[in-house]
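Final report, section 2: Outcomes. Of the targets proposed, Putative Vesicle-associated membrane protein-associated protein A is the one most frequently requested by collaborating groups, and we therefore present its record in full.
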Amino acid sequence: MLQPFNYNAAEKFNHKFMIQSIIATDDPRPTMEQLWKDAPRSKLMDSRLFCLLRLPEELLVEPSRDLVFEGPFVKPITSVIKLINPSSHNICFRITASSPDHFSITPSHGCFVRSRKF
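The predicted structure is given below as tokens.
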């Protein structure tokens, strides 16, 4: 279980977790510490999780981390972002891209009533 100690809005997107794995040998002798110490870097498998601290009235965004576009990129490719309003309030949204010349977003803004999906 991962649990934040406190909420700081300024650090909302700054937290990451590294998950490493390695195929274990059948030798029961090495301790966990020794296993990781002796592990060749080429045998380690890494995954990263980015932590998002979300208040109850914030939109749920799916996917929460990676928006995947699968090729071949010989024609326009689309991917879907789902917004869910879990709160009891009406919420307006807008979506911007860091590279607006390369991505088109439709709709890029809107409002929806409480407890609705968009």
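The beta strands are 15-21, 45-51, 60-62, 82-84, 91-94, 109-112.
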